[in-house]
Amino acid sequence: MKLVIDTNILWVSVSRRSKTNWLFQDLIKGKFTLCVTSDILDEYAEIIERKMGHKTAETVLKLLGELENVEFVTKYFKWQFITTDYDDNKFVDCAIACNAHYLATNDKHFNVLKKVEFPKVNVINLKELTNILKNN
User: Fold this and answer.
1) How far is CA 75 from the centre of its chain?
2) pLDDT tens-digit series, residues 49-104
3) For residue 107, which phi and psi values (nearest 5 degrees)?
4) Residue ranges per structural domain of the chain
């Protein structure tokens, strides 16, 4: 299963003390494919460093570069569906470019995608992602 995961879900799953660390552990175990672009990795690094420190950000990014189930995606088009926060579009563009099964986010800006029929992006929140991954 191909997933694009917004930073607001990924960074909190990194800490072993987090209730959502199971997600990061599932990624490490190869239970799904994480699709990323260079600008998504840049945002992951920025936020993880801000919240958890430079060493943690460096370790996470190195790990993402080594995991076989992390797919680096080249996007060729910017869709610009999200107008309330243009920066969020990098996740949408990645999801479309890699034909992701789901884009997981807790950000309400992505709700606009529910009205877009083509190209279809299946936006889910963390609770829905939990149910999907636990049942696969």
Assistant:
1) 15
2) 999 999 999 999 999 999 999 999 998 878 888 878 888 999 999 999 999 999 99
3) -90, 125
4) 2-134
Alpha-carbon gap, residue 16 to 72, rounded angstroms:
25
- Evaluated on CA atoms 56, 22, 109, 75, the torsion sign reads positive
Summarised one tens digit per residue, pLDDT across range 5-59 is 999 999 999 999 999 999 999 999 999 999 999 999 999 999 999 999 999 999 9
The kind and range of the H/E element at 98 are helix 89-98
CATH topology of domain 2-134: Rossmann fold (3.40.50)
Give me the residue label for tokens 């694009």: 4
Tokens of 36: 């990323």
